[in-house]
Amino acid sequence: MKKTSTSSAISRRTMLRSSGALAATTAVLAACSSTRPSVARIGESPTTVKLEEVAVTDVILLRTAMSMEIMAAAMLSDSAVTAIASKDTAPVIAAFAAGHTSQLEDLRVLISARNGEAYTETNAKLMQAYGQTALDLVASGKLATDTLPLTLAIETLIASTYQYFVSLATEPAVRADLVRLGGRSSRRAAITAQLINGGTGGFAPANDKDGVALVATLPSAFGSLSTVQVQLGPVNEVGSRTTVLMDTPSLNSLIY
Prior knowledge:
The protein is mainly alpha-helical. It has one domain: Ferritin, core subunit, four-helix bundle (Ferritin). It is built from 7 helices and 2 strands. The protein has helices spanning 12-32, 58-76, 79-82, 90-112, 124-141, 147-168, 172-196; strands at residues 228-232, 242-246. The chain has a two-stranded antiparallel ribbon. Helix 2 (58-76) packs antiparallel against helix 6 (147-168), helix 4 runs antiparallel to helix 7 and helix 6 packs antiparallel against helix 7 (172-196). The radius of gyration is 27 Å and the shape is globular.
């Protein structure tokens, strides 16, 4: 089709050539002018405040791990979950919640040994970012089948958090303890995956007859640090459910 002058595309070379000609013309006009026009200024230039640099120490990582363990225990023992869990899954979820609570003592000892102060609250920023949203969806949907996927997402998140913290820790002994603590959540995630998709066929990644990925006990050779995704709650008007994205702690959600 023949291009008209109004529809012809502008190439990158044309843009560079045109801008170069414009710059040259502007330079000539500026050189010929005897006076330089003043440029009006509106308002004041904002003052830039430099952010304070905070070193991420091993104690900060351990305190943040405490906040994550508290959040995991709180979510798994929330009435939104316990009220709808089946008689078979309820004891497992309760045991997992107790396991997160018991790990607080291990973290408290590690922090005290490094002259730090233990943290006794949930991670408020992450609870606000996705924790409470997940619980609200479970409460609104009232689907017993949501309890295990939520449990799997939480355990995977905690395992990923410890794995990520291993790369940030400086003391070898702390890295070893983080691996040990993270391994517990990794095993809980594997148990939950088996409860969802049991048997030897559920170990490796696979798809169902419609091409949808099935839950796998060992989804990859190494632990993943990517965002944990879980679908929860009632089906909406377009026939889908809400996907909650759970990320490991970042600089603004560490417990300093």
